[in-house]
Design a protein that fits this description.
Blueprint: H1 3-32, H2 36-41, H3 56-70, H4 73-79, E1 87-90, H5 98-101, H6 105-109, E2 121-125, E3 130-137, E4 142-144, E5 147-148, H7 150-166, E6 175-183, E7 191-203, E8 206-215, E9 220-229, H8 240-246
Antiparallel strand pairs: 1-2, 2-3, 3-7, 4-5, 6-9, 7-8, 8-9
């Protein structure tokens, strides 16, 4: 065999080895940092939600989430912003009696570890034209593994946009007339999300509002707009429970407590 022929037979082996090493490297990198598409197609199963809401594990889980909420850089930044005194904070459902909250969807049925473990924290403008609602969505609220159910996000938007509308309506009571939602990106489980709402128009018994769901880095996940209508019989209703559920600001305010109690 000639020298040239011998060199010709060795070259493919070196290329195969190099290709094999490159492939192994790509596999390792892909395993450590998989593309977003692969995470969606082949999610890693998470442990089930904590069943006993009164267990030490559940209590610790809730306390850790509340501490994480209070230390969020985003929340600290807006609390220290130059216009901070133009906003107030409150916690929906915090002053609602347990027996009244038990049959409420988000304040009762979906309350608990790995679901809506802690009460949302609302930062609302004093003139009620804008609000930020910070919510933690747990892994027990998924449609696809690791991805929050789109219907749950619609519910959170309905309630958040509803709050923006109701606090501006004359009798502070209203029902959803229309709700339009556009999903922009998957919302991952086990994270804090920020629902930003604003009042677009108020005319008599009707309020038009819009908002977004974002992650804490400002990435828009969902966009929505809605119209709410105040019923004609609203003046006859007992509105105390509605105000408690909304977390509407009352005349006297105090800082939010570490256990998630209200700023009301």
């Amino acid at each position: 065999m000639s020298r040239h022929a011998h060199q010709h037979t060795k070259a493919p082996r070196s290329r195969i080895m190099a290709g094999g090493l490159a492939g192994l490297g790509l596999y390792t990198v892909g395993a450590l940092y998989p593309p977003e598409e692969l995470r969606l197609l082949y999610p890693i199963s998470a442990p089930p939600p904590i069943a006993d809401h009164n267990s030490p594990e559940a209590i610790e889980h809730t306390q850790n989430l509340e501490a994480a909420l209070q230390s969020l850089p985003l929340l600290q930044a807006v609390r220290e912003a130059p216009d901070a005194n133009e906003w107030y904070e409150t916690r929906p459902y915090a002053n609602t009696a347990p027996e009244r909250r038990a049959n409420h969807f988000t304040g009762g049925a979906l309350k608990g570890p790995s679901k809506l473990a802690i009460s949302p924290l609302v930062r609302s403008k004093n003139d009620e034209t804008e609000a930020w609602i910070i919510v933690h969505v747990g892994r027990g609220l998924c449609g696809h593994e690791g991805i929050i159910h789109g219907g749950l996000l619609a519910t959170l938007l309905d309630e958040s946009l509803g709050r923006e509308a109701l606090v501006n309506l004359p009798e502070k009571v209203g029902v959803t007339a229309t709700l339009e939602i556009s999903y922009r990106a998957p919302t991952k489980a086990d994270q804090f999300i920020v629902i930003k709402t604003k009042l677009d128009e108020l005319k008599g018994r009707k309020a038009w509002v819009s908002g977004t769901v974002e992650d804490v880095n400002g990435k828009v996940l969902v966009q929505a707009k809605a119209m709410f209508v105040q019923p004609k019989y609203a003046a006859l209703l007992n509105k105390k429970g509605i105000s408690e559920a909304l977390g509407e600001r009352l005349p006297a305010t105090t800082p939010p407590a570490a256990d998630g109690k209200a700023m009301v």
